[in-house]
Amino acid sequence: MKYIVTFKESGERLDKALALLNQELSRSFIAKLIQEGKVLVNGNQEKASFKVKENDQIFVEEIVDTKADIKEEDIPLDIVYEDDDILVINKAQGMVVHPANGHYSGTLVNALMFMEDSLSSINGVIRPGIVHRIDKDTSGLLCVAKNDNAHHFLAEQLKDHTMAREYIALVRGVINENSGTIEMPIGRDKKDRQKMAVVKDGKPAVTHFQVVERFKDHTLVKCQLVSGRTHQIRVHMAAINHPVEGDPLYAGRNYDRLYKNGQLLTAYKLKLIHPTTKKEMVFEINLPDYFVNMLNSLR
Fold first, then answer.
1. Which of 135, 137, 189, 247 is catalytic?
2. Is the pLDDT of residue 62 over 70?
3. pTM
């Protein structure tokens, strides 16, 4: 969310100015956001004591009201696997994973709260059970923790890259190489704070890809994440001039999308070590119908 400093807030401390600009946020919550690096002034991280001036742009990443009443909702979920420790869900395209600014209902968390008596509490009341995320308009496999021990164990696998996540994407243009690795740092876009981008001071990000099928103007690829940055595959494929088909953010303004409902990107395979049995588990799903229909039309 972006705010423009007016004459009224000019000269105030950053934390006070933001409290004036959004009176629904407490000073303590704002201080926490600033400390976590989720508040930027003109693209730069500043301390709470930083004095703002008129026309400064303050960007706040994902403001969430932690006191919001997150309601249980009877929303059908495609459950691939379930036991006492974990849930593996095939998330539908268009579903937001957890409540955030503007999305306090209809999310995966709302559905989980309705159907589950126990979810991990590591990520608080806004993200119960959520270990990792996929974008709203990306479909596919997602692992949910039912207790804190399972959550810690799964989070460690994400951290040390032993949890393998593979995606299938339809990208624009024909990729001549049969396989490749994209290793480019990703961070917040300096010009558009709603987007991520390849930036010099970004966090390390590695994506492996393999060509599955070539079409006249498209390529179907499998992508494997080594790191797990926000929008990683979408940013990396756009960076090598092969944006994901249908991507509203990274395919460019003059891009005529064949698919209008979001990016054609699916998390089709998930490999993890079970928190209790310590055995490797592999889950794999078929491509959703809308994806298959697009491929058939290109063939």
1. 135
2. no
3. 0.75
Amino acid at position 265, single letter? L
Structure tokens at 89: 């869900």
Homologous superfamily (CATH) of 167-265 is Pseudouridine synthase (3.30.2350.10)
Rounded Cα gap, residues 3 and 54, in angstroms: 11
What sign does the CA torsion over 245, 248, 251, 255 have? positive
Give the number of other Cβ atoms within 10 Å of residue 6's Cβ. 13
* Class of domain 65-160 (CATH, top level): alpha beta
Q: Is the pLDDT of residue 284 over 80?
A: yes
CB 234 within 8 A of CB 220: no
- Which of the four pLDDT bands, split at 50, 70 and 90, describes residue 133? confident
Q: Cβ distance 190 to 197 under 8 Å?
A: yes
Range 2-60: architecture per CATH = Roll (3.10)
Q: Is 135 a catalytic residue?
A: yes
Q: In angstroms, rounded to a whole number, what is the distance separating the alpha carbons of residues 32 and 182?
A: 34
* Amino acid, single-letter form, for residue 23: Q
Question: CATH topology of 65-160 equal to that of 167-265?
Answer: yes
